From TrEMBL:
<dbReference type="InterPro" id="IPR018060">
    <property type="entry name" value="HTH_AraC"/>
</dbReference>
<dbReference type="Pfam" id="PF12833">
    <property type="entry name" value="HTH_18"/>
</dbReference>
<keyword id="KW-0804">Transcription</keyword>
<dbReference type="InterPro" id="IPR050204">
    <property type="entry name" value="AraC_XylS_family_regulators"/>
</dbReference>
<keyword id="KW-0805">Transcription regulation</keyword>
<protein>
    <submittedName>
        <fullName>Helix-turn-helix domain-containing protein</fullName>
    </submittedName>
</protein>
<keyword id="KW-0238">DNA-binding</keyword>
<feature type="domain" description="HTH araC/xylS-type">
    <location>
        <begin position="153"/>
        <end position="252"/>
    </location>
</feature>
Amino acid sequence: MKVAVPRPSARLPGISMAGFRHRAPALVDIAMVAHPSVTLLVDLSEGKGIVCDTHGRQERGSVVVGLLPGNLRATGRGVGECLQIRLEPVAAAAALGASTELSGTLVSLEDVWGRDAGQAEDRLRAAASWDERFTIATEILRRRLGAHPPVDPEVAHTWRRTLTTRGRVRVDGLADEVGWSRKRLWSRFRSQLGITPKRAARLVRFDHAAHLLAAGHAAASVATESGYVDQSHLHREVKTFAGLTPTALAAAPWLAIDDVAWPASSPTQSPAKSGEHIPDLR
């Protein structure tokens, strides 16, 4: 698997992108780990392309993956290319529509974007380089970000606080911060982002714990640092969000790809100086 990333200066707020290229005669089967973002997988492969499967539901080609997709696997054979776009929920609501139910779903990109999906695929497939593809994708997303009303500022603030506290914040406290009742915040957050504030906090906390596990930290210390009651609590949450044990999650290939495409060190750093530097992950 090879990965390309855009230049830091080309990134849009709340959105990250990476290009993947695989070349394997045998079937490639990767379990995708839940992430606190809505994910667009734009299939740029020739031939049969990529197949995504969750809970027995299969979609071939470009898809939109919701925040809580369950046990999701992506498979492909031969030479394949894919552009992955991650949108934080606030950005996803602006680009895809706040009324779109994207929590726990797997739908084709065409179902969400209509004929624009095919046109976007054609433009991206015809591009001569990953740099050009990232430029095209940024142009498309910037245009779509203005197509829907933004979420309430109170909802956006609640999401940002959930993210910056790594999910270790109480909903009642967030409601007080924005001057809303708990019931109103719960209702507006869910209707606009497709997930409840409590579930969002659990997902963000799980994501932090997953990357600590992948970095080699012991499950007991990860449980403590991530705010779980004990190691058993961590084990239950990992099973809920990934369908794996903490040990299996720590070895998940998708988290290794994360470390290259979306390093957790500094938002100003990038593992690639341009989209044309494609490190080989082996």
